[in-house]
Amino acid sequence: DAGVIQSPRHEVTEMGQEVTLRCKPISGHDYLFWYRQTMMRGLELLIYFNNNVPIDDSGMPEDRFSAKMPNASFSTLKIQPSEPRDSAVYFCASITGGRGYTFGSGTRLTVV
Amino acid sequence: DQQVKQNSPSLSVQEGRISILNCDYTNSMFDYFLWYKKYPAEGPTFLISISSIKDKNEDGRFTVFLNKSAKHLSLHIVPSQPGDSAVYFCAASPGTGFQKLVFGTGTRLLVSP
Lengths: 112, 113
Fold this sequence. Notes:
The complex is a heterodimer of chains A (112) and B (113).
Chain A: E1 5-7, E2 10-13, E3 19-24, E4 31-38, E5 42-50, E6 53-56, E7 65-71, E8 74-79, E9 88-95, E10 102-103, E11 107-111
Parallel strand pairs in A: 2-11
Antiparallel strand pairs in A: 1-3, 3-8, 4-5, 4-9, 5-6, 7-8, 9-10, 9-11
Chain B: E1 4-5, E2 10-14, E3 19-25, E4 30-38, E5 45-51, E6 56-59, E7 62-67, E8 72-77, E9 86-94, E10 102-103, E11 107-112
């Protein structure tokens, strides 16, 4: 199994631009999570899906953030427009039952 | 409001000695606790967990202790090895069945030879 796959690994963009982060969960995993890692707040849950349906998006910081999961093998996190304070490492994780998440390697986003 | 707190951002230990990483939580509904380890440029990986019905769980060099009355847990690594140098995240989950994990801010452990 290739694990949870995220792309791109690094993204540098200018303030105001749209950014799209991508995630392919492990096949058969029915929960998908988007987390953001910052020094101040650690790993924050942004949103999670169950069977492709968004269940809890209370962690999404602003309307500039949106996430979709059009099918069981793909999810996107979009920031439009991006701001410097969005700079962080964004992780995707998936599980099937249980509580042990499998994380992807993350996308390091820098907004200048 | 940080429900899971790791008050030490960093810890330095010599190889062979014990590393003790601490974690405090505020939500009394949390009943399952996990530690994740993260190397640079990689995602966090599961290390060890403990249910609230236990006060200790051991896996090789890693032991997690839970003090429910104090809402405190700790991870002990004995003996520490340079390869243990990483960021360690504490996480907690409430209730039964599937619940989302709440993570702390992490502690960076450096084990020097």
